[in-house]
Structure formats: structure tokens, C-alpha cells
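Collaborator request log, item 7. Partner lab (contact: R.S.) asked for a structural prediction of Response regulator to inform their binding assays.
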Amino acid sequence: MVQKAKILLVDDRPENLLALEAILSALDQTLVRASSGEEALKALLTDDFAVILLDVQMPGMDGFETAAHIKRRERTRDIPIIFLTAINHGPHHTFRGYAAGAVDYISKPFDPWVLRAKVSVFVELYMKNCQLREQAALLRLQLESGQGRGGAATPQEPAGLLAELSARLAAVEEQAEALTKQLDESADAAAIATAAHLERKLTGLRRALDALEPGTGSGASPLPSPS
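Returned to partner:
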């Protein structure tokens, strides 16, 4: 069963959070509320999120300051942030949002369809990256298990596992390629860069699997980090 991605919604106004939930409910993912920057940072301590929708104008810690804290943490620095604001102060204000680490900056009122489409792209990228990490962990576990037995595993065992992993990876590669083609036509530069990063990780894992094929002579080559 595929685990749902978590989307963090940060806004000090309950009615805005309710509106975001109504817009994003069609994505069928887990929506997590935070009514302040401080509450958002607490949620990020324990959970992994595919994307953060962050209101700019909040009392106390505003969106810019919250984003700065998120980007300083190693655990959360790579989570995409979409800024939402009801006030448009011109190019300087928008530039400040991108400088704080946002992948997008959307002024209210926004088109619900556009927002949902943007969020869905980052959810899909997150899910692909999770699949990649799972494949790498499975292969690493099998390699460690074989080494623990002193390399006495029968040839059929690793061959069968490698075939299964190769098939699973091929499915992820196919989906990632289709997503990249879709992004090339419509998405922003940040989403395209994220997809390219994912494809590089997939390429590294494919090379590691190929190196483990019988006859390559490198059965203990280290796996690339999928993070």
C-alpha cells in the first residue's frame, strides 16, 4: 500500500487553512495544519513533508523568517516552499520570497486549479524519491546480508533479487522520464531542477545495479546516496 505524502499548510487564519484543505483534498494526500511559524517548525521536527504552503503575513514569526529557519536545518532545507501572500508589494517583495528559498510565490486570490497543479508536481517528485530510497535500502540490506554469511549465498539468490530490483527501478525510471517530459512543457525552473536531481540519483542507482550483475567483478560497490 502506497504511503501518502504529507503537505504542510501554514497560515494564522483558520478560514485560509480551511480553503487550502478544500482545494488540495482532491490530491488525496495527508494535509497538516500549522497556525504559526513556530508551530510549523515543530511539525517539521518529526515529520517529512513533500511541500510546504507558507503564508507570508503572520503575526510574530512571519513567512520569510519561518522559511529562513527551515532552510538552515539540514533535515528540512530541501523541502519545496510555496509562499502565499495577500499583499503584493512589487518585485522587491517577490524577490525577497525567492531569496528566502521559495520555489514559487503566489498572490491571493489565486487560481485553485493552478495551485493544485503546482502542489501535485512536488508531491509526485517526493513519491518518486521515496521509491528510489526504498530500492536503494533493499539492495543495501541484501548486500550486507550476503557479506554477513561470508559471501556464501547461492548464485540464484542475488541474481533473482537483482532482477526484481532492476524491474522495480525500471518502473520508477519510466515514471520519472514521463514526469520530466511533462515538466518540460509546463513547469517552472525549480520543479524541472528537482526532477533533474531525481533523474541523476536514478542513474547512479542503475549504475550500481549494473555493477552487481554477474561477470562485472564489482559485487561490493557502494551505492549512491538517494537523498
